[in-house]
Amino acid sequence: MTGQLAIEIDRASPVPLYHQLAKQLTAAIEDGTLKPGDGFENELSLADRLGLSRPTVRRAIAELVARGLLVRRRGIGTTVASQVVHRRDELTSLNEDLERSGRAPHTQVLELVSGVVDERAATALQLAPDAPLVFIERLRFAGDEPLAILTNWLPPERADLTLAELSSDGLYDLLRHKGVRPVVGHQVIGARSASPRERRLLHVTKSQPLLTMTRHAYDADGVPVEFGNHCYRADRYAFDFTVHAR
Fold first, then answer.
1. CA-based, 20 to 30 A from 103: which of 69, 97, 167, 228?
2. Rounded Cα gap, residues 166 and 48, in angstroms
3. How much is the pTM?
């Protein structure tokens, strides 16, 4: 329960009070202090305990509900949501996100093919349209639950990647071990319906949407190192971004 949390509100800080509260509650959920299914202290009690107004507390809670961290149920109240992996505004792999959130990732490699020609991916990698690329498709699990289908294209020199490596490690870890360091990524986030094959692999229904993410990743010299086009179960994955006024 949030009553057990040591929440500190700095009224002298320029950071809005609701955001201070939301940030600390988020951290408690992400580090496992608050676990899926835990009951959540009601709005009035939390406001009284922290000396905050109810609108301030309500706004903080609403932010966590909107991000899928809390769930409101009639007759039950507010509880911590089932485990959702949250990707922040940093360049990480899904494997790293799962490990950070305390989940046990494992991977089924669906395809690993060298010599694939794909004009869109080649353009993203700043190669000739007919360049022979390395194509990787993986099904990533969180525990026993399928979470995402990860599709990547790599330059031809990455044909040294093996099925065993991709089954046991995240792609970015493997690239770093081979001396390639992704440091900058450009991502486009979207949503769409799942194809019949995606529904079968991810165990979703026709009415359940998928989150999508297309990424171009670059090393410190601005050289493209990978192009990815991924889809995720929207009920188990979310993208977290904090934005600031100019």
1. 228
2. 51
3. 0.61
Digitized pLDDT (tens) for each residue of the chain, 246 residues in all: 555 677 889 998 888 999 999 888 888 877 778 877 778 788 888 899 899 999 999 999 888 877 767 777 776 778 887 655 555 545 555 555 655 555 567 889 999 999 999 999 999 999 999 999 999 999 998 888 898 999 999 999 999 999 999 998 889 889 988 998 888 888 888 999 999 999 999 999 999 999 999 988 888 778 899 999 999 998 877 766 555 555
Q: 3-class SS at 92?
A: coil
Cβ neighbours, 10 Å, residue 172 = 21
User: CA dist 26 to 13, 21, 68, 136, Å?
Assistant: 19, 9, 11, 34
- Spatial CA neighbour of 141 closest among 86, 173, 174, 99: 99
Where is 25: in which H helix or E strand? helix 17-30
Sequence-distant (≥ 6) Cβ neighbours of residue 55 within 8 angstroms: none
Distance CA 228, CA 218 (A): 12
Of 82, 79, 68, 11, the residue nearest 41 (C-alpha): 79
Both structure tokens of 150: 């990860």
